UniProtKB/TrEMBL annotation:
It comes from Novipirellula herctigrandis. This is Uncharacterized protein.
Length: 99
């Protein structure tokens, strides 16, 4: 399997979301246009299985760095989602986004 770069050629933009949107997991889950609880649980189980497989292979330094990477990726994903929701609300003339 060839290595996929995490960033674009300029090293300025992440490509992870592009890869995720092309993954079988995402395509299958989005087939009906919505995500239900069972699909979220299934994806979490897949994520946990990968963590269990990979975590024991990491030394302490790698573990710390990848933990930071995963956390920052989660922050970025949530921020993107909230920004998109905010933009959608603003385009509809609704101010404020309450969670």
């Amino acid at each position: 399997m060839s290595r996929k770069s995490w960033m674009d050629e300029q090293g300025e933009t992440t490509l992870i979301d592009d890869y995720a949107s092309q993954s079988t997991s995402f395509i299958d889950a989005m087939a009906d246009g919505k995500i239900d609880e069972s699909e979220v649980q299934s994806q979490e189980a897949k994520l946990v299985a990968l963590m269990k497989k990979i975590e024991p292979t990491l030394d302490d330094k790698q573990h710390a760095e990848i933990t930071e990477l995963l956390c920052e990726m989660s922050v970025y994903s949530v921020m993107q989602l909230l920004h998109t929701a905010y933009q959608a609300r603003m385009s509809q003339g609704v101010s404020g986004l309450k969670l």
